[in-house]
Amino acid sequence: MSYMIMAVFLLLKFAYSSSPLDDFIFNGSTMKLDGTAKIDSKGLLMLTNSTSSRQTGHAFYNDAIQFKNSTNNGSVISFFTTFIFEIVPKYPSLDGHGMAFVISPSKELRGARPAGYLGLFDDINTGSSSNHIVAVEIDTFKGVEFDDRDDNHIGIDINGLKSIISASAGYFPAAKNGTFKDLKLKNGDPMQVWVEYNGVEKQINVTLSPINVTKLDLPLISLRRDLPQVILDTMYVGFSTSTGRLTASDYYILSWSFKMNGEAEQIDLSRIPKIPQPSQKIDREPNAVLEVSFPFILFLVLLLVSLIGGLLISRKKFINVLEDWEAIDQSLGTEYVVEEAELVLKLGLLCSHAMAAARPSMSIVIKYLEGEAKLPDNLSDIIRSQILDKPQMERMCH
Ligand SMILES: *[C@@H]1O[C@H](CO)[C@@H](O)[C@H](O)[C@H]1NC(C)=O
Ligand SMILES: *[C@@H]1O[C@H](CO)[C@@H](O)[C@H](O)[C@H]1NC(C)=O
Ligand SMILES: *[C@@H]1O[C@H](CO)[C@@H](O)[C@H](O)[C@H]1NC(C)=O
Ligand SMILES: *[C@@H]1O[C@H](CO)[C@@H](O)[C@H](O)[C@H]1NC(C)=O
Ligand SMILES: *[C@@H]1O[C@H](CO)[C@@H](O)[C@H](O)[C@H]1NC(C)=O
Ligand SMILES: *[C@@H]1O[C@H](CO)[C@@H](O)[C@H](O)[C@H]1NC(C)=O
Ligand SMILES: *[C@@H]1O[C@H](CO)[C@@H](O)[C@H](O)[C@H]1NC(C)=O
Q: Which of UniProt's keywords are assigned here (predicted)?
């Protein structure tokens, strides 16, 4: 009799521990991809590539995962995940926007916006408790509207993009008295992240390190938070990335291991795939400056010419000029629509305003360029608001 019980117990234990719903190691299959995400023949997951503009990429593990313990008042079960990512910016100064490890009720994230929204939320639902999303953001863009601390940080996001807690990227070396070491997320080196939740202590820890440094004792960020209101009974786990209008990077997941109620399997570093042509990344920088400022400079020149002429060009005339110019400059492609050119012209106007206080800061200019804020039709509104709440940030065209 006791043998029977033991056998049943072992069977149950086996069924439990080998259940694909509780732990897995990413191996290139069993993923639901959308947007720009794709997996190549070697199992390398690329979430977005640096030639995409205002795109999102999602990759979720196909099966839902049981996150709550029904025999324990629906408490959230401990979980543990570790993954290796690599960010290769198109141009180091214009990388973006970031990526996130996501726990979500659905594999779709429909309507989620690119750029600063990281493909997680849209402008209406960010911050809403009905999202039921927990994310660890690896953010390489300083989003003013989300109170980002810098353009190189890790944060824990619950239901919205304003992180509950965040820290500049880096790690505490294993030695007890080791001083904090900064890391640059977007330097094209693979890095490893650990996300651990202890369901008893109700604490979530996030640790970051270069891949040649073994698991560290001290997490980069640690948050005490009971998650039952956020986490539903079953959830999906995966990754999200986004690119902006000007900012983009190649985002890769090289390896990923996940486990409920236990420590996820170690990643075998000798088996992680290599990303294609990683060495190209540095020497393209000078072009970046040209590529971005070229339209700017051109439009400023256009503007000056028209001002010197003593005439304010009409919208219609401007569009004609623009179309001529577009025909000449093929390199900007079809993406460069009239609307965007108008935006650049308006920003040029603002930047060259006679009154210094009326000129927008660089971060605000980028916000408009990235499509994260709509420039008011009436420029005098924005000039007035600029002067009223004179921001402390660096001025654009001083
Ligand atoms: C990949 O992992 C899944 C379970 O997560 C498994 O069913 C599948 O056989 C694996 N494929 C390969 C090629 O190892
Ligand atoms: C990059 O992504 C775009 C879609 O956004 C796709 O059309 C293009 O082929 C991709 N390029 C590479 C090199 O994968
Ligand atoms: C669920 O809760 C019960 C009762 O507290 C406990 O015995 C069991 O180990 C828990 N299961 C998991 C997967 O945490
Ligand atoms: C279960 O939850 C209820 C309501 O949230 C609470 O009153 C009760 O103390 C909990 N029981 C345990 C064992 O945690
Ligand atoms: C770190 O601690 C060790 C002893 O634990 C000591 O020998 C060493 O000098 C300390 N280093 C620093 C930089 O404080
Ligand atoms: C989180 O880190 C703290 C140390 O800062 C540690 O005491 C705690 O056990 C860790 N929790 C988890 C879930 O790893
Ligand atoms: C890890 O690699 C980086 C460069 O690849 C090197 O500078 C650093 O010293 C290495 N650290 C360890 C602990 O091996």
A: Kinase, Receptor, Transferase
